[in-house]
Automatic annotation (TrEMBL):
It holds the Pfam family HTH_1. The keyword Transcription regulation applies. This is LysR family transcriptional regulator. Belongs to the LysR transcriptional regulatory family. InterPro entries: HTH-type_LysR_regulators, LysR_HTH_N, LysR_subst-bd, WH-like_DNA-bd_sf, WH_DNA-bd_sf. It comes from Ralstonia soli. The keyword Transcription applies. The lineage of its organism: Bacteria, Pseudomonadati, Pseudomonadota, Betaproteobacteria, Burkholderiales. Residues 18-70 form the HTH lysR-type domain.
């Protein structure tokens, strides 16, 4: 085979041949790829041989069990998929001019972010783009970035934490809030201007499951183990236990509504990790669909009106 010639490749290769090549890789047989693309097997074989001649390098390794991409073929697979992703994005964007925005966008986030920040903005988005199917997945904070990385979600909104692996995503700042200690009214700590995690540890510190990792890391830095008597999934349940004077907890301040303060008190948590930075994650190297782009723009462009809106306790 000859050497690679970029201009020759651009002039000679058609999209159908690239689609056929991808089908051969996915089916692992040229014959099955031919059936999938509705052409004769001999024609499919000839097209892929011509593609290899144009590229100047072997793209498929043939064996008794079928075909697999060669190292050069694997490169072509990656770029061909990007080409077809971009073509689909182009089709969606162009159709939006005549049909209105259509499609589906999936967002993953945690309850403590959905309630105070996202719910109102998602409602606005649904009204602005009524033909887009908006799918919301409520998952724990640690699972949000993984969902985006796997392609299970187009956008993830998460609270930054030191243990998260962010190598496969692009991250954009979204909101900020803070964690506070929540203690019963008339509790000795309720008179303090601020408390530390060391002040809370001797109490029955009730963790919401999403906060367990942060609690254990903070206890480890103090040289102590953290083994809670209670463990709950909901901030509302944690606050109910504090109201019953069964312990104290730590929660995002935005989840506390004013009517709670008849029974509990919030106290500043004087810890570096009490500042909660909320970010948006999107998959690195994967083009966003027009509906996802529109949602991303809406999240970033809308006024930060939710910052002073507290939520009810049964929601997080």
């Amino acid at each position: 085979m000859g050497s690679f010639n970029r201009l020759h490749l651009i002039r000679q290769v058609d999209l159908f041949t690239l689609r056929l090549f991808l089908s051969a890789v996915e089916e692992q047989q040229i014959g099955r790829a031919a059936i999938r693309e509705n052409i004769a097997a001999s024609t499919a074989t000839k097209r892929i041989q011509d593609l290899e001649d144009i590229a100047g390098v072997k793209l498929l390794e043939r064996g008794p069990k079928g075909v697999v991409p060669s190292p050069a073929g694997a490169v072509l697979v990656r770029y061909a998929r990007m080409i077809f992703d971009n073509i689909e994005g182009m089709r969606s964007e162009i159709s939006a001019f005549t049909e209105g925005m259509r499609g589906q966008v999936t967002l993953a986030s945690a309850r403590s972010i959905i309630v105070p920040f996202l719910a109102r903005e998602l409602g606005d988005y649904a009204r602005d783009f009524p033909m887009v199917d908006l799918v919301l997945r409520e998952v724990e904070n640690a699972e949000i970035v993984e969902a985006v990385s796997r392609g299970d979600a187009d956008i993830g909104v998460f609270a930054m934490a030191y243990e998260l692996e962010l190598g496969a995503v692009d991250v954009t700042p979204y909101r900020r809030d803070r964690l506070v200690a929540v203690v019963p009214r008339l509790h000795p700590l309720s008179e303090r201007a601020s408390v530390t995690f060391a002040d809370l540890l001797p109490e029955n510190l009730i963790p919401v499951s999403a906060m367990m990792g942060a609690y254990r890391a903070a206890a480890k830095r103090l040289g102590q183990d953290y083994t809670p008597a209670f463990s709950v999934r909901s901030a509302g349940v944690a606050i109910s236990l504090v109201q019953a004077k069964l312990g104290v907890t730590v929660l995002p301040e935005c989840l506390l509504s004013h009517d709670l303060f008849e029974h509990v008190t919030s106290v500043e948590l004087a810890e570096p990790w009490a500042a909660r930075a909320i970010h948006i994650a999107t998959a690195r190297g994967r083009p966003m669909s027009p509906p996802a782009q529109a949602l991303m723009k809406q999240l970033l462009d809308r006024p930060r009106a939710n910052a002073d809106g507290a939520a009810g306790t049964d929601s997080a």
